[in-house]
Amino acid sequence: MPTVTTPNTGIEIFYEDTAPLGGDPAAEVILLVMGLGAQMTLWPDELVAALVGDGFRVIRYDNRDIGLSQKMEGQRAPSLPVQLLRKKIGFPAKVPYTLKDMADDGIGLLDALGIARAHVVGASMGGMIAQLMAVHHGDRLASLTSIMSTTGNGKLPQAEKHAMDALVAPITSMEEESLVAHGLNVAKNIGSPGYPFDPEAQRARVLANIRRSVYPAGLPRQLAAIIDDGCRRSRLAQVSVPTLVMHGEADPLVKLEAGEDTAAHISGARLVTIPGWGHDLPVALIPRIAGEIAAHARGGG
């Protein structure tokens, strides 16, 4: 699988491009954007296969600072307390890069691949990035799907402590078993109570991701970009592309109200909520999620 250097941001992006059976050159493109500290492989293979089987060309990629894409070595994120304090008093801290930079990376990937327009689907932080693609590059989006994401409004209900603690817990050892334990703990604390994962299958997925890449240094820089971006409510009023918002009713990390707020601030957005769904992409929900994305992309949402 190849890498490209984005012509607009100059970042080396690793991506996977899966064409439908027969390689239809006219197939519509779905671009998948993943979340905080998450490699592109957190988009389940089953979801990619379902969308490809529905006739779409599907592209997923590693954001900068994660997986096999370029790392921002040597750039330091401000400490979380300092950044939050400065944001509160109206003096944003300097961050290594912004969410808009990450949105520009995704558009740059489309440029490098010669793709004029795509259906953009983002999950969690990827939803925030996708929202900014729609704000700043609306002519490049055929549609927007924001999954388990938020407007960034600080007055929304906050993550449950156990979920946030698990996500940002420092990695204390690079030994494989310690990394697996860390990954399983995150999955347990943010996962879907209505769709519990199979422990052995989840362990295999975590292990595969660890063996692909481990880069803890990127997470605080990506988190700094999220905090720096602040509330997008006023900017989302500019979004004019057809928008689908999907959210789990049992999400402990980005609460349901965040998805409702996102839909409320994008004109014409359709909101789909699912009971028992947390902050992951359970295999049991793939047919529903893929079906909603495909129907929306085809204008049937």
Q: Which spans of ≥5 residues are poorly predicted at pLDDT below 50? A: none
Gross CATH architecture: 3-Layer(aba) Sandwich
CATH class: Alpha Beta
Kindly report the spatial arrangement of strands forming the biggest sheet.
1-2-4-3-5-6-7-8
Count the helices. How many?
Answer: 11
Task: Spell out the CATH superfamily.
Answer: Alpha/Beta hydrolase fold, catalytic domain
Cα gyration radius (Å): 18 Å
Please report the total strand number as a whole number: 8
Summarize the structure.
The protein is an alpha/beta fold and about 300 residues long. It is about 40% helix and about 15% strand.
Structure, explained:
39% of the residues lie in helices and 15% in strands. It is of the alpha/beta class and 301 residues long. The chain has a single domain, classed as Rossmann fold (3-Layer(aba) Sandwich), CATH 3.40.50.1820. The model has no long low-confidence stretch (mean pLDDT 95).
Features:
single chain; 11 helices; 301 residues; globular; 15% strand; eight-stranded mixed β-sheet; alpha/beta
What order do the helices and strands come in, and which of them pair?
Layout: E1 3-5, E2 12-18, E3 29-33, H1 45-53, E4 57-61, H2 80-88, H3 99-112, E5 118-123, H4 125-136, E6 141-147, H5 161-168, H6 176-190, H7 199-212, H8 218-229, H9 233-236, E7 243-248, H10 256-264, E8 270-274, H11 286-297
Parallel strand pairs: 3-4, 3-5, 5-6, 6-7, 7-8
Antiparallel strand pairs: 1-2, 2-4
Helix pairs in contact: 1-11, 2-8, 3-4, 5-6, 6-7
